[in-house]
Amino acid sequence: MIVPVVAWHEEHVYFTLLLHMLQKELDLFRDAGLPNYALMQDIVSYLRDYGDEYHHPREDEAFRRMLPRCPELALELARLQQEHAVIAHAGEALSAHLEAIGSGALVPRAQVEAAAATYLVYYRNHLMREEEEVLTRATQVLTEEDWEAIRQCAPAGGEPGRGLEHYRELRRRIALEA
């Protein structure tokens, strides 16, 4: 069995890779180049699907279980949970813009850039703060019983990078980045 906090960290590393790939495409967009909109949509879709369905519910349960044992982290844990909602909302907005562009609609560049910046800034900072402030404490205070409950709070699902069957372009680009 993989140590749960190691899996959590590996997911963060994978998400960071995807955010880096998204940033590269957004840089092309910003510079009036021709980004790969399908790849951008796949990245946002995957981060939303996997993050919102599997990763964030498990983190929320971990935060809930940590709170009584780490009251000094109460504000930080509450902020991180709130950021899950902000990240989901920002991802939804960015995804809608990318879908519209993919359908041939003209979307003002400023709207896409603002949505992308919100998504990237929140997601990157969120991951960094969890890595710096929560993971080590989680290993110190959560029990095997806690980790089992955390595993059970979200559907049994793939690990990051798995279940990408319908993300063909994303799979191809990840292979090229590796």
How would you explain this protein's 3D organization?
Helix 1 (4-30) packs antiparallel against helix 2, helix 2 (37-66) packs across helix 6 and helix 3 packs antiparallel against helix 4 (109-133). The chain starts with a helix and ends with a helix. The mean pLDDT is 87. Helix content is 77%, strand content 0%. It is built from 7 helices and no strands. It has helices at residues 4-30, 37-66, 74-102, 109-133, 135-141, 144-152, 168-177. By secondary structure, the protein is mostly helical.
N to C succession of SSEs: HHHHHHH
> What is the C-alpha radius of gyration, as a whole number of Å?
17 Å
What portion of residues belong to β-strands?
A: under 5%
Tally of helical runs: 7
How widely separated are the two ends? 25 Å
Largest sheet: none
Secondary structural class: mainly alpha
Mean pLDDT over the full residue set: 87
**Helix fraction bin:** over 70%
